[in-house]
Amino acid sequence: MPFEPPPSTWSLTEVTRDLARLDADDDLVAMGADLTPGTLLQAYRCGLFPMPSGRPGDPPMWFLPVRRGVLPLDGLRVSRSLRRSARTMEIRVNTAFSEVIAACGDPERPHAWIDDDIVDAYTELHEMGWAHSVEAWRHGELVGGLYGVATGGLFAGESMFHRVTDASKVALLGLVELMRDDHADSRLLDVQWSTDHLASLGVVEVTREEYAVRLAAALRLPLPAAFDDGRSDGPVLRPVVG
Question: What pLDDT band is residue 236 in, cutting at 50, 70 and 90?
Fold first, then answer.
């Protein structure tokens, strides 16, 4: 099971205490603090997530999008081609976290943003049981995946990658299935910002206020079993695609 880190010395909850006071046109709401496990968990539990400020060692920037991208667990759109791809892959959890975050942070990727500070911070969070990788494998080879933070009923997705067609989508499909349990109606799959690509998969946008309500409900839930079994080599499954 995950274990709770020492509390943060920063009070990020003050940033989100009164949403009406935040700039309604700016997703960036704070700068500073650090990326220790206690700070990161506090941030996710109050709706924030970090991005690097541009130079290694500089304090992070903290975002609370005006329009937040979330994927309803019953809203993922699975095309025929994705169904075919899913039948050729298997999903594993937490068997290659370091490789997944390294692939997501490949500096040659367009719009690369994951730096060494982010890698170190989320690796530590993973070692404490809070950050997880969901991986797509084919013939014993890692071909795609994603990573994010799970706390209560929230899974906050951070980044994904693929090495073969549809592999990142198959990993997302696997994540959705891992979150579908008796609490699925109240679980929250956060993707930070919606894009045309994510919208085509079923991602919708919600306001800050709606996100806060849904987050509060999600945090009261237990973790999905896949993220709470205490193993470093989580379950292997085939995506259920009908």
Answer: low
Whole-angstrom Cα distance, residue 93 to residue 178?
A: 10
Tens digit of pLDDT for each residue in 131-163? 999 999 999 999 999 999 999 999 999 999 999
Q: Is 118 exposed, middle or buried (0-12, 13-18, 19+ CB in 10 A)?
A: buried
Distance between CA atoms of residues 188 and 216, nearest Å: 10
Q: How far apart are CA 196 and CA 187, in angstroms?
A: 23
- pLDDT exceeds cutoff 90 at 30: yes
- Separation between Cα atoms, residue 87 and residue 138, nearest integer Å: 10
Residues in the chain, overall count: 242
Q: How far apart are the first and last CA of the chain?
A: 32
Contact in structure between 162 and 143 (CB atoms under 8 Å): yes
Hey, what are 201's tokens? Answer: 């998969």
- Mean pLDDT computed over every residue of the chain: 93
